[in-house]
Structure formats: structure tokens, C-alpha cells
Amino acid sequence: MKKGLVSFIILLCAVCLFYAIPAESKKTGGNTLKGVVQDVSGQAIDKVVVYLIPSKDVESMAKTPIIVKRNSPNDEPLEDNLAANIDNYKQGTTDKKGKFIITNIPDGKYFIYAEPSDKTYLPGGDQSDISMSTADFKGKTVKILLSGNVSPDATYVGSTKCLTCHAKYSSVKKTLHKLGIAVPGKPSKLQDYSRFPNFNAGVNKLSAGTKFYFSGFDKSRGFDKYQISEKAPADPASVSFTATFFKDADGSLKFKTENLKDSSDPARTYTVAMTYGGGLYKQRYLVKVGNAHFPFVQYNTEGDDKLNDRTRKPWRDYHGDWFFNEEKKKLSDPPAKKSFEIECASCHFTGYSLVHNVGGDYLAGAVSDPNGELDIDGNGMPNELNIGCEVCHGAGSDHVKAPKAKKAATIVSPRKLAPERASVICEQCHTRPQGNLNNDQPVNKDNRMLTPGTSRNDYLVNFTSREDAKQSDFWPDGLHSKSHHQQGTDFIKSKKYRNGNHIIICTDCHDPHGITEVKHQLRGEVRDEKNSLCVSCHKNIADIKAHTAAKVGVAHTMKINCVDCHNPKTMQTGSGKGKGLTRKDGKNYWMNDISSHIFDVPRKDNKGVKGVDPAKAMPIPYTNACGSCHNIEGL
Q1: Given CB 3.0 to 4.6 Å as the disulfide criterion, which of 102, 147, 321, 390 pairs with 122?
Q2: Which value, in Å, is the radius of gyration of the alpha carbons in the chain?
């Protein structure tokens, strides 16, 4: 009898206690996350703290204007939220088997973020970019894979070494990242031009013999202060100098400059050591002067002599003013401090370095590779002068030496990083910051580029003196980019970068290894009938007619793709491809050549942009795609 009474009292107390617990606790007490943290080799990683970052916090951040500056509170969607709320977020720590458990999780959606205890591995994990609901991980064990890290003492080995083991990524040789810098007529063994059969159309024309007249000097212009033509201008007095290209007996491409203002000034001959570009819109020619190289003359792959705009003809001046002194009326050599190595090379070379010599000039270097393009540092072996494996994965010497079980811990796997750390690898060159040299090269005080895995904030603090583009690189709305290589500048402003569902990184859409044959290294087609790449995520907009009917009130019956509206070509490369493309009816509409990565649909009325005249804000986005079918005056 007493035993039954005791049991009854215990039951009664349990019922009372249950009803005394707050509703929130009853709602959340049963949610548990179990998981394991490993590297790609299957090695368990202990002492990793796993945090649950509520997706609603990232959604709240996305409602604030992004601040691009050092120590910004909101430009790293996961890491800034974690820094601000670390004591409030649910967490668990892995044991020696890499296992962890987090209990009493409130219902909701979370980004799962892993923080290693030391620098052997990098933060984030392959589960950090897509939020999961408590229902998603109920009853499951979530496996988190972390990226390894490269030690400060690791050295570069070159892509040839990487591809001996990772031959399946040999397709990288066909990408523009690998074809940007080349020796005229002599592609390296790391270069395959098969996807770009007209890549060297410009250099082939020059090799056949071409003479250019540089006339009409205008100091108010940028890099093209001269008008350039293959025919002598009607007014001989307007010509300052000529440049005659020829193929020398040794097979090299050279040109000779002659002063038409002063015939007593001795002619000068230069060697075109390398070409720069050619696969997309333009190609420039890198001239060797001393130990350095300087760009000279630009070939526009889609230029046309019939067009009146000087920037859209086949040939365009590119710093002819460096080769002729208008004040002294004398031929000159380019200024040493304007060399390609100092101004541009850090975003092209693998393992970029720059040393200030005693004599006052600079000597740039890149990783030595037996299949590299050209020996520029004089060590007797060619250098890899294009984007190679180690630009994204880090210096590979430790990885090469490590036993199989340890290899994953010695190299960076970008897709296993926190999304903001993955994207900044691309953004360092696809934005427009200034670095230690106070030019567009984002290098630190040692004149080095960032190591993959570096946080976005560490990058801004240690590699930039100006965090991003200046005001003149944007249209008057202050939002959309006007200058080229600002895709990252646009992207971090987009909803794809800060949202509560899927924090996109560049490689979600672009394949850095170039395995697919799709243009711009995209992972799928964006201009086929199905809008395949876009619809792979946005399945709810597969019916474009229904989508446009809902958004603009018109069900477009003609062929139209997502990118026509969401990726308008707001930026210019300098190739002159845009600037007024003529329609069949003879009317002009504006078009540029680099796509915006904000993914919004800019409107002609620019509603919400204070102080901006809609007619002047930006002529491109509402006319390039729309203008092919509509009369733009009526838009």
C-alpha cells in the first residue's frame, strides 16, 4: 500500500513538473544534433567546437546594408554573427573519435559551423553553407569534413607536380585562368587552346607585319591617349611616332618605334615577350624592357574598322604615351614603376613575389615549373605565370611529402571552408582593392597574396590599404559596378551571399577546373531553353513565362533567359565591345560586356536611389537585353 502511494505521488509530481515547465522548453527539449568531424582522409578531429548559427540571425543581417571595411560587423555572414553571439549559440565539442552531441536545441534552422582548436585545420566545414532544420538532422548523424591548412613554411611546387596525382583536373589547362599569359606562338605544356581557336588572331596579324601610326595625342584620356591606325592619317603633323611589328629571324615577335617628330632621334626595337589575354574580348602585348615587362597595343577581338568609336576598332592604343615623350618630342622607355610585374602580375602569377633590388628596380617571381610559360626570375627554369592549383589550394610542398593519411591536413579544400573564406579566394582579384603597393595588387607588406583559408577580415586588414573600388568605378546609383573585375564587389551585396538558406560561393556556379565545356567555366548552361544552371536551385521558376507575368505583368513569349534580367552587363572590360550596339532598325541601345553579380533586376526609374537622376543612373541594364526586341525610347 505504501509502495503504491509513493508511486502515485511520484507520478503526480512528474505531471505537475511537466505543466510547470515553460512552453519553449517543452517545445525544444527533444532536439538533438549528433555528428562527427573528420578530414577527407577519414581522420577524426578532436577538440573541434561545433556551433549552431540560427539562420534567422543571418536573415536579419541580410536586411542591413553591407559595410565593406576592415572589422566590418556584417560582411561575413557566419563569422560576424558567431563573433557577436558566441556565448549564446548552442555548441558541442568533439571527442577523440571526432564525435559530438548538442542537446536541447530550439526548433528552427541552423548553419552548422565547426571551429578547430588549432591551425592544423580551417574553420567552417562542408556543412556550413546550407542551413538545416531541426527536423533535417533528427535521428541522424551529421558528418562534417574540414579543410586542411598549409603551414607558413610550405613552398610552391607548380601545377605540373599537382597534376601528376590529380590528372582528372587536367582540364584546367583549357581555362582562361591558365591561358592569360603566354609566349607568342609557344604555348606551354600547361596550356591548351582548343576551346579558343581564335585566341591568337591578334598576335598572328602582328607576326605577319603591321605598322601603326600614333596620332592625335590627347592627355585628358586614360590609357589610350593616341589614336592608332594602320594607315597614315591625312594630317602627317598629327603623328607622333610609329611602331612596326615584325617576326625576327629567331622567330620572336618584335617591333620598332620611329620618331616622326624628330628624324634624328634613333629608332628603338623591343621584343614582345608575352601576350596578355586573347580568349575573351581583347589581347595586349607585354614588351620586355630590362628585367620587367610593359603592356603595349590592344587588339579587340570583336573590333570593327567601320565603327566610329575609336575604342571599338580592331586596334587600340594602350599606353603609347609610355614609349614617346610628347613634351620632349622624343622616343622613351616605359617608366620602371609601371611594369606589369608591379601593377598587375600578382593576380596572374602562381606564387607571386616581388623583390626591390638595390639598383632601384623590382624583380618579380613565380613558382618554378618545368612546364611553365617563361623564365622571368632568371633561375634557369620556366615560371608558372598563370593561375595554377596552388593559388586556390595553397603551397603544396608539405602535401607532396605527407603520407597518404596526412595529405588532407596539409592542403586547403576551398569547398570545406566557411563560405566567406571560400569566396574571398576569388574576390581578392575579382574586386578592386589596393594593397601594400598602393595599386590594384592586393598584396601584404611582404608583397605576397593571401593564403587560401584566410578570413575575409584578415584579408582586408593585412592585404588592403583600400578595401574595394573607388566611387568612379560604380554607376551614379552607387550600387552597380561600371569597371571590370568587380564581380566579387557585386556578389557580396547580393541576396545569394547573405541569406538564411544557402550562402552561395563562387564555385557553386563556376567550375575552377573547367571540366565542363560551358562558357565562362560555368557548371551548367544559362542560355539553353531550360535555364539549366539557374533552375538547378530555383526550381520554382522553371516556367519563365509565368515568372515574368508575375513580376512585370507580361508573359514573355520570345526566348528569354534568367541571366538577361538578373545578370545585366553593367561593366566594361576596356575592349570597347559595348557602348552602343546598333539594332537592325538603326537605333542604338547600350550594352557592356561583363555581367553584374548582384542578381537584382535594375529598373529604369531607379526607385529608392536617392539623389540620382534615373536618366543618368545607368543606361545599360534596362536596354541591353530589352533593347533587342523593344524600342528603347518607349521603355
Answers
A1: 147
A2: 29
pLDDT, tens digit, for every residue of 432-441?
A: 999 999 999 9
- CB 135 within 8 Å of CB 102: no
Residue in the block written with cell 532544420? 133
Query: Which cell numbers in the block locate residue 51?
Result: 556551433
Of 563, 576, 582, give the one whose Cα is nearest residue 621.
Answer: 563
Q: Rounded to an integer, what distance in angstroms lies between the CA atom of residue 228 and that of residue 183?
A: 24
Q: Structure pTM?
A: 0.91
Q: Give the Cα separation of 441 and 449 in Å (integer).
A: 8
Going 172 to 175 to 177 to 179, the CA torsion angle's sign is positive
Domain boundaries defined on the chain: 1-27, 177-347, 553-635
582 DSSP β-pair partners: 588
Average pLDDT over residues 45-64: 98
Q: Pull the grid cell for residue 36.
A: 562527427
Q: What's the CA gap between 164 and 393, in Å, rounded?
A: 16
Q: pLDDT per residue over 600-615, tens digit each?
A: 988 767 766 777 777 6
Mapped to the 3 state alphabet, what secondary structure does 379-422 carry?
Answer: CCCCECCCCCHHHHHCCCHHHHHCCHHHHHHHCCCHHHECHHHH
Question: Pick from 484, 499, 518: which is nearest to 597 by CA?
Answer: 484
Distinct helix (H) and strand (E) counts, the chain: 18, 22
pLDDT in tens, 565-603: 899 888 888 776 655 544 545 545 566 788 999 999 887
Helix axes 456-463, 419-427, angle to 10 degrees: 40
Instruction: Answer for the pair 463, 78: CB distance below 8 angstroms, yes or no.
Output: no
SS3 491: helix
Listed in sequence order, the residues at least 6 apart from 555 whose beta carbon sits closer than 8 Å to its beta carbon are 545, 546, 548, 549
Contact 148, 416 (CB under 8 A): no
